[in-house]
TrEMBL record:
<dbReference type="GO" id="GO:0016616">
    <property type="term" value="F:oxidoreductase activity, acting on the CH-OH group of donors, NAD or NADP as acceptor"/>
</dbReference>
<dbReference type="InterPro" id="IPR036291">
    <property type="entry name" value="NAD(P)-bd_dom_sf"/>
</dbReference>
<comment type="similarity">
    <text>Belongs to the short-chain dehydrogenases/reductases (SDR) family.</text>
</comment>
<dbReference type="InterPro" id="IPR020904">
    <property type="entry name" value="Sc_DH/Rdtase_CS"/>
</dbReference>
<keyword id="KW-0560">Oxidoreductase</keyword>
<dbReference type="Pfam" id="PF13561">
    <property type="entry name" value="adh_short_C2"/>
</dbReference>
<protein>
    <recommendedName>
        <fullName>Sorbitol-6-phosphate 2-dehydrogenase</fullName>
    </recommendedName>
</protein>
<dbReference type="GO" id="GO:0008206">
    <property type="term" value="P:bile acid metabolic process"/>
</dbReference>
<dbReference type="InterPro" id="IPR002347">
    <property type="entry name" value="SDR_fam"/>
</dbReference>
């Protein structure tokens, strides 16, 4: 999802910096855009504040003030609650929640100097609706919701908006692996998992990448200028609040 957003924004004229640890996948994104001068890659561990700060300084030297920020790094693994452990807890919380906390701090520090900006934190339907075998993931995404709302309220009068996107099932590399764990949970064939999800979604389709990109574009532009502390549920009617 992060790669798709980066490519779409560059094609629309934005200057974008990718923070990631995966050089190969980042290179694929860099090679896929036509305006290559408007996309840079910074190798960053988003759970390390110093690395985030250093990369952000580099970005501003190259592109100027940071005005928009998307936190989209994610980690998920399914397991029965009593079979989960501290290692899984730490891995999930570090990427899904600690990274959002640290990156948002750095982003807001920059935005306060630059006159404001917008932050999108990628949450999940699992940040609204609990699921068995996803205890730790749900905890992390519920945490993203609370964190986002709290900082949205704190900086609303300083021209900084913070919102979340809560997708349901998106066919990404993460779900290429998770479907086998979900199949084990439901005692079903892994090849039937996605069709099972579609049957239970009122619109009978999964989230498409373009749905995520369109929602992000809305939240990062003046079309949503009076929106902060809110979440867009990209779930095809599966959850409403």
């Amino acid at each position: 999802m992060g790669a798709a957003m980066a490519k779409a924004f560059v094609e629309k004229g934005a200057k974008v910096a990718l923070f990631d640890l995966d050089n190969v996948k980042a290179e694929d994104v860099l090679n896929s855009v036509s305006e290559k001068a408007n996309l840079i890659f910074c190798k960053v561990d988003v759970t390390d504040k110093q690395q985030i700060q250093t990369a952000s300084e580099s970005v501003e030297k190259t592109f100027g003030p940071i005005t928009s920020w998307v936190n989209s790094a994610g980690f998920s693994k399914m397991s029965p609650f009593l079979e989960s452990d501290e290692k899984m807890w730490d891995a999930t919380m570090n990427v899904n929640l600690k990274a959002v906390y640290l990156c948002s701090q750095v982003a807001i520090e920059r935005m306060l100097k630059n006159g404001g900006g917008e932050i999108i934190n990628m949450s999940s339907l699992s940040g609204k609706k609990a699921s068995s075998w996803q205890t730790i993931y749900c905890a992390s995404k519920f945490g993203v919701q609370g964190l986002s709302q709290a900082i949205a309220k704190e900086f609303a009068d300083q021209n900084i908006r913070v919102n979340t996107i809560c997708p349901g099932i998106v066919e990404t590399e993460m779900w290429d692996k998770l479907k086998y764990e979900y199949a084990l949970k439901r005692n079903m064939n892994p090849d039937d998992v996605m069709d099972y999800f579609k049957r239970n979604i009122p619109m009978h389709r999964l989230v498409e990448i373009k749905d995520v990109v369109n929602a992000a574009e809305f939240l990062l532009t003046d079309n949503s200028s009076y929106l902060t502390g809110q979440s867009i549920n990209l779930v095809g009617g599966e959850w409403m609040d």
